[in-house]
Amino acid sequence: MSKRTIQQLPYEHDELFKGEISRMIPYHRMYGKSYCVPALTVYQDSELAELQAASEAVHRIYRKVQQFIQRYMPDEYLVERLGIHPGLLRAVRMEAAPDGITRQDWIVGEAGIKCIENNTDTPTGIPEVAYLEGKLLEALRSEGMSEDDIALYGPSSGMDEAIQSALTELIHFYSRKGLGTKVYFTCYDWHVEDQTNTKYIMHLCEQAGFEVVYAPLEELEIIPTEGLYHRGEQIHILYRLYPLEYLIEDREEDTGLEVGQALMDMVADGKIGLINPPQHIITQSKGFTATVWSLYERNEQTPAFCGFRLFDDRELEVIRTYLLPTYFEPSVFMQNKEPYVAKGIWGREGKGTHLIEHPESEERLECVSGVAQNAKADQPDLLHQADAPLTPEQEEAAHIAAYYEEQPKIYQRLWPMQSAEVQTEEGLFHGYVLTGIFVIGGRFAGVLPRIGEKVTGDMAYYCAAAVANEPSNPPAV
């Protein structure tokens, strides 16, 4: 398989990521190394056109299945198969007509393009795509450029407008329910990446004409059944960059008050509108991916269950072409000795994901990223040192690893990733490309390429997207 083309920029990291760029993307370095690299991931016009059409078609199928689950599937299915906390059920069954901000993860290569995951609850990577991509293309053009360089353009130039349009629809949706139009934006204030993503979206919302307030999670106060407050002001619309599967477990340390449950009860009672809406946790669960495939395989049986055929012929073709067989148990792959991936249903950044490339030998590759990876390297024989005390970092790493490993899993056919080589401060990195596609308000909005290991974790590099103009198929202007 051929490598993905990477266009290196004629800059060192610190020459480029400074000044305004450093202020806008303060996490251009993470975990002690560069995260953003001075390079571009090059796609062809034809690839972008297919990704645009395919991502929107897949999104429509996701929305259809999400609504099918909300209307027809019993609570037991949502809890046992999707892993949704019982305390979220009332809220997740509330149907919000407008679409929010979502990001699909695609593998793009010679074997065809496949959507492998859907990030719909709290997708990040927004400032990189909406802002940094354009700045890197500007940097390329400011140097002596070849005709090939001139032909490169950014695929994500419409992302800001797409975010504003989607937010406007959601705010008006909540306004019609009596919640007003003032929006509070929250995340953990200490988390630089989350704060930057949150404030970027907040500023776009403000530019769209809405009153906005930044309210860190640490400053929010909940009075059960009454309301959510920030510095004495009641909140009616809340953008939160905080996963619902975490939020529902939150309790006050001093009193034990279940503040997460209290908040979600008020959401279900219509007192608070969330962005993204609670229904997005249905599509966030990796159990949802297995559900889509199960319904695809049983499409002819759906009339007996709900009175109609769920997918039409065109939708069946989209699923067959762009999605992968995914199940709640691995027996199909084991019987066929077919490589597959095991994923925790709430896995994030590669955590809880294992590649089984040789099922007959049960060999698997694991991705343990961030602090957990460092802790493992620092203590290679940790399990054999029963008396050795763990450092706080190792305790946290062990807790995180256990959280993801103990989750129920889904099993998906392994699809070959395209390799790439990118120059970094540590030298030439040989990795694999995962292409994130933002679908916002139901339409294609931007591209987030990352180059990492075979399981893309939080140590992967962001290498901005650029599209090569093909003379026979110029981009629409």
UniProtKB/TrEMBL annotation:
InterPro entries assigned: GSPS_pre-ATP-grasp-like_dom (IPR005494), PreATP-grasp_dom_sf (IPR016185)
Any one GO MF term held by the record is: glutathionylspermidine synthase activity
* Enzyme Commission no: 6.3.1.8
Record's keyword terms, sorted: ATP-binding, Ligase, Magnesium, Metal-binding, Nucleotide-binding
Q: Where are the transmembrane segments?
A: none
**Pfam families per the UniProt record, alphabetical:** GSP_synth
Instruction: Tell me the ranges covered by the Glutathionylspermidine synthase pre-ATP-grasp-like domain, including all copies.
Output: 27-360
Top-rank EC class of the record's enzyme: ligase
Which Gene3D superfamilies does the protein's record reference?
3.30.1490.330
Q: What is this protein called?
A: Glutathionylspermidine synthase, putative
| Organism of provenance | Paenibacillus polymyxa (Bacillus polymyxa)
Question: What gene does this protein come from?
Answer: gspS
